[in-house]
Design goal:
Blueprint (H helix, E strand, L loop, with lengths): L4 E3 L6 H4 L4 E3 L17 E6 L5 E7 L5 E7 L8 H18 L4 E6 L8 E6 L2 E6 L2 H5 L1 H12 L3 E4 L4 H5 L7 E5 L5 E5 L2 E5 L14 H10 L4 E5 L5 H8 L4 E6 L2 H13 L6 E5 L2 H10 L4 E6 L11 H17 L1 E11 L6 H14 L3 E9 L17 E8 L3
Parallel strand pairs: 1-3, 8-9, 13-14, 13-16, 14-15, 16-17
Antiparallel strand pairs: 2-5, 3-4, 4-5, 6-7, 7-8, 9-10, 11-12, 17-19, 18-19
Helix pairs in contact: 2-4, 6-7, 9-10, 10-11
């Protein structure tokens, strides 16, 4: 099938040739292929300045990232067979990596389907489409998912802020089947209740699976503070692993209700406390009351969503870690994480170093982690790597 051609300016093909999948609007030859002539999400053949085909993708003339490459094969037809092949490849790896059907099945560019995220919760699939181009392929995506997985339900979240930028509707929808009253998942042998409809993102954050397992091995007998706990993924697993007590703090009462329900599923509710509060305010109050915890989990949402937010976001991460160290008991354990792509691993490392020195605590890094294998990193697309975690042993003054 012949698609309209999108021409790049001279030398603006280097990123694509190195393996990246994005085209920015200032890289397009506006004389040969004016962006306004394309419809939002329209399939295109992407060409270099000489006219050589780089591959097939889709375009949105109204966004900074105006095109995304889907295939480097010039004659690719973007239909159900194409989508099904990509889903099959992703599924093959997930089934090799995990023994139960609870994982991120599709992770955008890393799985060759930019603009698409699919999380699998057993028989329920939660789908987030974030680009106009993938929205055009939605029928093919649904057909492939239903054929390959035979789900009970497919829920379209449709609430990502990027959909607004792409000119897409933000109304969630049941695309297939019937949603059960309760959706459950299992992670590291612990059961959880899930809000696939009203929850954040796709309803769950699988990316910290390995880090939560590691933390659980170290928290037996400890008094644990889980900040930004959301639905209790860290805290409930810590309690199930033998923590003496766990305090979950989150600003969302509904998220904490899910955490409490999950605690009940695992018979650990009696050792858990759920506090609806702003994490910064809670930490300041805990410091003033001289409360101390043997372990603190600091897993905030992305505090630097855009590059221009870096300075304010960096300061927020610094203040959080500074406060967390002040409520940590001697010989305590701090698990500090960031899911902001714009905060580098070196940045978080420096924040931990500086915060420990500022309050005269001796801190060493026991281990570090990142996103799990169901969030694979594309080696040519640094934006696919975002999660970093440090596990720190913190004692008194040396």
């Amino acid at each position: 099938m012949n698609y309209p051609r999108l021409f790049l300016l001279k030398n603006e093909d280097r990123r694509l040739r190195q393996g990246h999948a994005w085209v920015f609007s200032n890289e397009v030859d506006a004389n040969r292929s004016p962006l306004p002539q394309f419809a939002c999400g329209e399939p295109v053949e992407i060409c270099d300045s000489s006219g050589a085909t780089l591959g097939v993708g889709y375009v949105n003339p109204n966004t900074l990232i105006c095109a995304r490459l889907l295939s480097r094969k010039p004659n690719t037809r973007l239909g159900v067979s194409f989508v099904k092949a990509r889903v099959e490849a992703a599924l093959r790896w997930r089934e090799r990596l995990f023994d139960k059907p609870f994982y991120r099945l599709i992770y955008g560019e890393s799985d060759g389907l930019p603009g698409l995220v699919v999380d699998r919760f057993g028989e329920v699939l939660s789908v987030q489409i974030t680009t106009a181009g993938m929205e055009r392929l939605k029928a093919f995506v649904l057909e492939a998912l239903v054929e390959l997985l035979r789900p009970r339900a497919v829920w379209l979240k449709n609430d990502a802020s990027q959909r607004h930028l792409e000119g897409l509707d933000l109304t969630p929808a049941l695309a297939y089947g019937t949603l059960p009253e309760w959706v459950e998942l299992e992670e590291n042998g612990v059961r959880f209740v899930l809000d696939a409809v009203g929850g954040q993102k796709t309803g769950w954050f699988y990316d910290h699976r390995a880090s939560r397992e590691l933390f659980s091995r170290w928290c037996h007998g400890l008094r644990v503070l889980d900040l930004f706990s959301y639905a209790g993924a860290w805290g409930v697993q810590a309690a199930a692993a033998g923590a003496e007590s766990v305090t979950c703090v989150d600003s969302s009462a509904s998220a904490l209700e899910l955490a409490s329900a999950s605690a009940g599923l695992n018979s650990v509710r009696d050792k858990m406390e759920f506090v609806t509060a702003d994490a910064f305010e809670y930490l300041r109050a805990a410091r003033e009351q001289q409360l101390r915890f043997d372990a603190v989990i600091l897993d905030p949402p992305a505090l630097i969503k855009r590059k221009k937010d870096y300075k304010a976001g960096y300061e927020a991460y610094r203040r959080l870690n500074h406060l967390a160290l002040q409520v940590l008991a001697p010989h305590g354990l701090l698990a500090s994480a960031s899911c902001s792509h714009h905060l580098s691993r070196d940045d978080l490392h420096e924040i931990l170093r500086g915060s420990a020195r500022h309050i005269d605590r001796h801190a060493t890094i026991l281990a570090s982690g990142g996103q799990g294998p169901d969030h694979p990193v594309h080696p040519a697309i640094p934006e696919t790597e975002y999660l970093k975690t440090f596990f720190c042993a913190v004692s008194g003054r040396f």
